[in-house]
Design goal:
There is one protein chain. The protein is an alpha+beta fold and 180 residues long. 28% of the residues lie in helices and 32% in strands. The chain has 4 helices and 9 strands. It has a 6-stranded antiparallel sheet, sandwiched between helices. Strands 6-8-7 form a 3-stranded antiparallel sheet. Strand 1 and strand 2 form a beta hairpin. Helix 1 packs across helix 2.
């Protein structure tokens, strides 16, 4: 299965052993302010879903590892937007790693994987309008505002970018594959 390496990050597949770290992230009210915190059971279901999504679709959420500390600091990847066939970019990072450009770095690598490896034609992203930091990441990775919408029981801003419109920064991405 593919892994991605950027200047500061490794994006790799989740394992069941990462439950505790993911739960700390998903149960943090400030980190999950715009997504809603998750219980232990919801986190366990999410972790299994992250793993299964990769097996079924050749894309999904990666565990984001900070290379300097070798710690999992968040998740970033692609999934299906609620009740649609559209593929959505999503990310969540530990608060101590906010405002360092890491969500942007991971998102650029994720988009590049989606467009160049999976051959997706279009990727979307949504955010609460009040989540200024998330909206800024979406804009920085080249997505364009399309409309206001409602997903996951929330009013959101909806952005999108097509493969033709997107211009990656080639220096941020190295695809690695496991050698069996």
């Amino acid at each position: 299965m593919p892994e991605i390496e950027t200047a500061r990050l490794r994006l790799r597949h989740f394992t069941l052993e990462e439950f505790d770290v993911l739960y700390r992230l998903y149960s943090n009210a400030e980190v999950m302010r715009y997504l809603s915190p998750r219980t232990r059971e919801q986190t366990q279901a999410s972790l299994r879903k992250h793993i299964q999504h990769w097996q079924e679709n050749n894309f999904g959420m990666w565990a984001v590892i900070h290379k300097d500390s070798d710690k999992m600091i968040g998740r970033c990847g692609l999934g299906f937007l609620e009740n649609t066939p559209e593929v959505e970019l999503g990310y969540v990072f530990d608060k101590s790693y906010w405002q360092m450009g890491l969500a942007t770095e991971a998102s650029i690598a994720t988009l590049k994987y989606g467009f160049l490896e999976v051959k997706l034609d279009r990727i979307v992203a949504i955010a609460h309008p009040q989540n200024v930091a998330s909206v800024r990441v979406i804009q920085k990775v080249g997505m364009k505002y399309q409309k206001n919408a409602r997903f996951y029981n929330s009013d959101v801003v909806y952005y999108a970018v097509t493969r033709k419109e997107w211009h990656p920064d080639d220096s941020l991405y190295i695809l690695q594959t496991e050698i069996a």
